[in-house]
UniProtKB/TrEMBL annotation:
The lineage of its organism: Bacteria, Bacillati, Actinomycetota, Actinomycetes, Kitasatosporales. PANTHER family: DNA RECOMBINASE-RELATED, DNA-INVERTASE FROM LAMBDOID PROPHAGE. This is DNA invertase Pin-like site-specific DNA recombinase. Pfam families: Recombinase, Resolvase. PROSITE patterns: RECOMBINASE_DNA_BIND. Residues 200-310 form the Recombinase domain.
Length: 520
């Protein structure tokens, strides 16, 4: 259990040193004026330290006040890091308190004569919660309530309306703060200023200058992903290096993915997934140093989204240990004259052999013929040499330059059309009333969005093409197993492995038949 969890645990439930239920009931019989109260503490944001100091301060204040009144605290409810204004947030301890107030006693059986909070907005911020709390509180007579405003009579006539007015004012103030925060966030983004609450991975504490080691790791990861590496491989590499997030946690698949998809990498600013643009509809460049180019960012985002099919999670496919598993196919001719054509699997070679792995056709019970066996190292090298030669030939002969995107003028016209419609509507043009404006706006926005998506796809293609290195042999050696497999599968449909016959024979390259993909 972490330090924060230990603090919260001590501030929840029955306080230490509290007399037993029987002893408390004896105390009440001796002094009927004694009040057994419960305390509720809540904070929406635990701060960057995440040390629960906010609720600790609240409970300390309530404990001091209870001593002044001679009240006995019999239970403490604590909801840390939980908002009271968001409907989707479940406050477990608040719900338990409502139940206990209704039954009239704590889970251990202590009677409840009152409630303490540092302020009523700790308890409720929405009308529904106020009504439920008031109903549970007044389910029993003569209870007391204390907060920063002093003693409050919740049974008084008209207090329910007074409470609803207070809730409405609190809710309005909360929404006003949220609106101001959103506007401030967006205005800072438009000015190109950093709005990150935490130090982004890759940048220093000032969120502007780069941390060389982290920036270099991101730059390499982007190039690797564009070239075919998976986010899972990058995650493994960063863990092995010892990188941690700016919050001090080990990197996981999702956090690495978030780093690589962040437009901040190329200097752009995003708000809720949309690039922040200036009056000319161009992406605003932030004040921080960029790590990669915009084209590289478009390429890496396209690669991640395409590979994840938009699911946002690792596909969970099998990670192969050997280069040609599933690519090699058995070419043995069966008794009926047909070819086995079963996918061969990689296996660890026997310890007395000079090589470490081999490929073999599956056993007959698994659908194979178990007749073809190939030495792993020489098979891998031969297929790699074939694919490298193919890539070099393609690079030398085709020299395919992706042409410029041909719809830049269409995008500009669509943007200008939308801007003109907005200006005419805002300036009170009688020909553009509300109905005309809102009827035409969606089509123009859809057109702009579609063209921007096409532009991003084109930029991604350009970046991927530029990422191809001239020295294919050198770049091949630095690629991961997954990257090599992807390149092999793009060049080849399969490699048919013919049986070598019985006995210990020399490795025969002619028994490996590549099935090339067409140039298309």
């Amino acid at each position: 259990m972490g330090k924060r969890e230990e603090v919260i645990s001590k501030l929840r439930g029955t306080p230490e040193g509290l007399p037993s239920v029987e002893e408390v009931r004896a105390m009440l019989a001796a002094d009927p004026s004694l009040k057994c109260v419960v305390c509720y503490a809540r904070i929406s944001f635990d701060g960057r330290a995440k040390d629960a100091h906010g609720i600790e301060d609240q409970h300390r204040e309530m404990t001091d006040n209870s001593r002044k009144f001679g009240w006995l605290i019999v239970y403490r409810y604590t909801d840390n890091d939980k908002s009271a204004s968001k409907e989707e947030v479940i406050r477990d301890d608040f719900e338990q308190m409502i139940n206990d107030l209704t039954t009239g006693q704590t889970p251990e059986g202590y009677p409840i004569h009152g409630v303490m909070a540092v302020n009523d907005d700790r308890l409720y911020r929405r009308p529904g919660d106020w009504e439920r709390y008031l109903s549970a509180f007044t389910a029993h007579e003569d209870r007391v309530y204390h907060d920063s405003n002093g003693m409050q009579d919740l049974y008084a006539e008209g207090f329910e309306i007074k409470g609803l007015v207070g809730v409405a004012m609190s809710l309005a103030e909360t929404r006003k703060k949220q609106r101001r925060a959103r506007n401030s966030h967006r205005n800072r983004a438009i000015r190109g200023q950093s709005t990150a609450a935490w130090r982004p991975f890759g940048w220093d504490d000032d969120k502007v200058t780069l941390r060389p080691a982290e920036a270099a790791a991101i730059r390499q990861a982007v190039r690797d992903v564009i070239a075919g590496a998976s986010v899972s491989e990058i995650t493994k590499q960063w863990k092995e290096i010892g990188f941690i997030t700016s919050r001090g946690n080990p990197f996981q698949y999702q956090t690495v993915k978030q780093v690589l998809l962040n437009a901040r990498l190329c200097g752009y600013r995003e708000v809720k997934g949309e690039l922040v643009r200036d009056g000319d509809d161009q992406p605003i460049v932030g004040e921080w140093a960029s790590i990669i180019t915009p084209k590289e960012w478009y390429a890496v985002t396209a690669a991640i989204h395409d590979r994840g099919h938009g699911a946002g999670i690792p596909l969970g496919g099998v990670v192969h240990k050997y280069l040609l598993t599933g690519i090699l196919r058995c070419g043995n001719t069966l008794e009926d004259g047909s070819v086995c054509n079963n996918k061969m699997i990689g296996i660890k070679a026997n310890t007395w052999l000079k090589y470490e792995h081999a490929y073999m056709c599956k056993k007959t019970v698994d659908g194979g013929c178990n007749k073809t066996y190939k030495r792993g190292d020489k098979t891998d090298k031969h297929v790699e040499d074939l694919v490298i030669a193919k890539l070099e030939a393609q690079a030398a002969s085709s020299n395919r330059d992706i042409p410029d995107w041909g719809k830049a003028e269409d995008l500009e016209r669509a943007i200008q059309s939308r801007k003109q419609l907005e200006n005419r509507w805002q300036n009170g043009d009688p020909d553009v009333d509300d109905e005309t404006f809102f009827r035409n706006l969606p089509a123009l926005e859809a057109r702009v969005k579609k063209l921007r998506a096409e532009q991003a796809e084109h930029l991604a293609m350009k970046a991927a093409a530029e990422a191809a290195e001239a020295d294919i042999v050198t770049s091949w050696k630095s690629r991961t197993l997954t990257q090599k497999r992807e390149l092999i599968k793009k060049a080849l449909h399969a490699v048919t492995a013919m049986p070598g016959g019985k006995g210990n024979k020399a490795f025969d390259l002619d028994l490996l038949k590549p099935v090339w993909r067409s140039s298309e």
